[in-house]
TrEMBL record:
Residues 1-31 form the signal peptide. Keywords: Signal. The keyword Signal applies. It comes from Kribbella turkmenica. The lineage of its organism: Bacteria, Bacillati, Actinomycetota, Actinomycetes, Propionibacteriales. InterPro entries: MetalloPept_cat_dom_sf (IPR024079). The keyword Disulfide bond does not apply. This is Matrixin family metalloprotease. GO terms for molecular function: metallopeptidase activity.
Amino acid sequence: MKPTRWRKTRFIAAASAALMAWVTVASPAMADTWPFNSNFRPDTGNHNYCYSSTYTPQAAIRTQIYNSMVYMHNNTNAKRTYHSTCDTSGEGQTDVVWQGRSLSSGAIGDAACMVKWSSGRCDRYRTRINGPLIRDHYSSDTYRNRQYRKTSCHELGHTLGLDHYPSPYNDSCQRSGWTGTVSDSWTRIWTAHHRGHINDWFG
């Protein structure tokens, strides 16, 4: 009987280790809160966007911003509307104003709430993509475009209340950093868990 008990013990230990490994892998997506910052609770309704007339993103960046907005529209309850002219005054302003410019912080991109309601909801975000940095980092237009797409998806996610997704989990564009030569789908999508947060808020 001793060998039998040893095999059972070994099996239980292996099963416990497997369960712990699953919990460790699954926990980041399950545990993240929404919104990750009280300044990043968007208003409801269509998630309108425009391109800054002062810091207009280059055409290649605009293409990838558009692709990210379409992805949001087709895969979540947040719907896009394009504003040819940015509305930056009064109530009901353009939700996301996209800029393409160098950032003194050295970041690839960033997002900030510029107008916040007394209710705590953000009425207008400024989202910036550091095109010059990306073009310096990559000599290939293919890699540049992949980074534009990943960064636009990432910063758009922040305007929808999503937090950074921790490395090395390759499931979401909310993971920070460079795409390198990677073309996997995670560089341009959000996890089902993230989409669930968005869908719950936008109904």
